[in-house]
Amino acid sequence: MLQRLYDWMMGLARHRRALPALAVISFLESSIFPIPPDVMLIPMVLADRRRAWWIATVCTIASVAGGFAGYAIGYFLFETVGRAVLEFYRMMDQFEAFQQAFLEYGWWIIVIKGATPIPYKLITITSGVAAFPLGAFAVASMISRGMRFFLVAALLWWFGEPIRLFVERHLTLVTTVFVILLVGGFVVVRYLF
What we know:
Oligomer: single chain
Strand content: under 5%
Structural class: mainly alpha
Number of strands: 0
Number of domains: 1
């Protein structure tokens, strides 16, 4: 089933309506959809590198908007919808541990984990369950999702096809290094200035 879904999304990436399709996929992935928008973002940027920043912008905005849907699922519909989504993806064990850490480190969890390949729906639904402040959720989501999608777009814009193969093989490593550098920058700014 996932292979057919993946193949369908790859076909959409080449379609003339790829940008609206990317927006829909980005929106849905933030709350219920299993495949990350990167599978469309990557071929779309490679197909037209001049539009890399616009494609990343659409992907980011749609993902954050979908994050609000995930938040609403966690806040209003956790027992009826949220739990079913997390159980379907076998994330309930992660959810329980995640919920505990969220109480203390909510902002940082959204910023850091939202930039990684960890399913964003886990973050958005947990944010709603924890009733994390909506404004802070919005800002943290824009930062984390923007970092993720603009990093991919920038690498593809700069390096083209060779970087696609590297990013696809090492997405977790690339994202983790970027997040470490970002958090390290915040720590340096906080304690040195």
